[in-house]
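To illustrate the input format used throughout this study, we show a single complete record. The first block contains the structure-token representation of the backbone; no residue identities are included at this stage. The design step must infer an amino acid for every position from geometry alone.
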């Protein structure tokens, strides 16, 4: 299972911006898509956005559309998440992992590739005044 290291989180005021990075331990091109997920206290992991590694096609959760932008650098095996106009409800630990091609293509959802996905440490994003 590919390992990921997330970074770039922090404390930001509402309306602010952050750019998260997700560095993979191997070739992200070996996977169909990579996604960002987040987990707020007491809640399940939520798919935020994912990107097709080959053609750059993207998916976004309704809650972040128009505010977040996902991108990838295949040469660096890194996926990014630019987060603008941040809201307090965006507060969570953000993770990245590979996603299931079938869910991406058929259901247009970001779902972890492995049913027993092993999450990395994640990066904390706190939006507060």
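Output of the design step:
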């Amino acid at each position: 299972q590919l390992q990921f290291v997330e970074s770039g989180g922090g404390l930001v005021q509402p309306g602010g911006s952050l750019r998260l990075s997700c560095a993979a331990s191997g070739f992200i091109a070996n996977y169909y898509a990579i996604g960002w997920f987040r987990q707020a206290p007491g809640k399940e992991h939520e798919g935020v956005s994912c990107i097709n590694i080959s053609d750059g096609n993207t998916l976004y959760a309704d809650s972040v559309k128009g505010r977040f932008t996902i991108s990838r650098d295949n040469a660096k095996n890194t996926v990014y998440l630019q987060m603008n106009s941040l809201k307090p409800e965006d507060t969570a630990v953000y993770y990245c992992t590979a996603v299931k091609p079938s869910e991406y293509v058929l259901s247009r959802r970001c779902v972890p590739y492995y049913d027993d996905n092993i999450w990395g440490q994640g990066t904390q994003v706190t939006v507060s005044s």
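Structural context for interpreting the output: The longest helix spans residues 101-107. The CA atoms of residues 37 and 47 lie 4 Å apart.
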